[in-house]
Design brief:
mainly alpha, 4 helices, disordered C terminus, MADS-box domain-containing protein, transcription, TF_MADSbox, DNA-binding transcription factor activity, RNA polymerase II-specific, cis-regulatory region sequence-specific DNA binding
Length: 191
């Protein structure tokens, strides 16, 4: 369970404020120390109290100064680039994920439109002759993709069939039956 949210506000009482400050500084130092171990990187923390001029540095004032000097020695463009690099990398990752989701959504919408169009044609509310050239091309593309998909699925379920022979016919041209089904229709459709 996570730590409850603390309302950030000025602590009026001086002794309590000093205690809160010490506790929070200790927590930050512990987190920074863990980060340096886990990520194998250098880090420093510097706390400065403007009222009394007190400076606290972790791990030491010399190491903190050394890290700050290393950072300041870099050209400004490189410093800014390194600072933005992690943020821009995160943004690029999120952008790619969103673009992928958007593309999947577009494909799903297009499939729904084609399913709806096929249903309209089946129900007679639209005629093939009334379709635009674009709709016809999209419908042809969609149905051919569906046929390929279902062909693959059927071949996964029945891997012993070759690609050249009809899937549901015997060598005699009779319909194949599976799991006790009869090839005789008795004049009724079993749907």
């Amino acid at each position: 369970m996570g730590r409850p949210k603390v309302k950030l506000a000025w602590v009026e009482e001086r002794k309590r404020r000093a205690t809160v400050c010490q506790r929070r500084m200790k927590e930050l130092i512990q987190m920074a120390e863990e980060l340096t171990i886990v990520c194998d990187m250098s880090a420093c923390l510097v706390f400065y109290n403007r009222k009394n001029g007190k400076l606290v540095a972790w791990p030491s004032l010399e190491e903190a100064q050394s890290l700050i000097d290393c950072n300041n020695a870099l050209p400004e463009t490189e410093r800014n680039m390194k600072a933005d690099d992690e943020e821009s990398s995160f943004i690029k990752t999120i952008t790619k994920e969103i673009e992928k989701k958007l593309e999947l959504s577009r494909k799903a919408i297009e499939e729904l439109k084609m399913d709806n169009l096929m249903l309209q044609i089946k129900n007679g509310s639209r005629m093939i002759a009334d379709l635009s050239q674009t709709e016809i091309e999209k419908l042809k593309s969609y149905t051919s993709k569906k046929i390929v998909y279902y062909d693959r699925e059927l071949r996964k379920q029945h891997p012993n069939t070759s690609g050249n022979e009809p899937f549901l016919e015997d060598d005699d041209g009779e319909m194949k039956t599976y799991e006790g089904e009869s090839s005789e229709s008795d004049g009724a459709d079993n749907a």
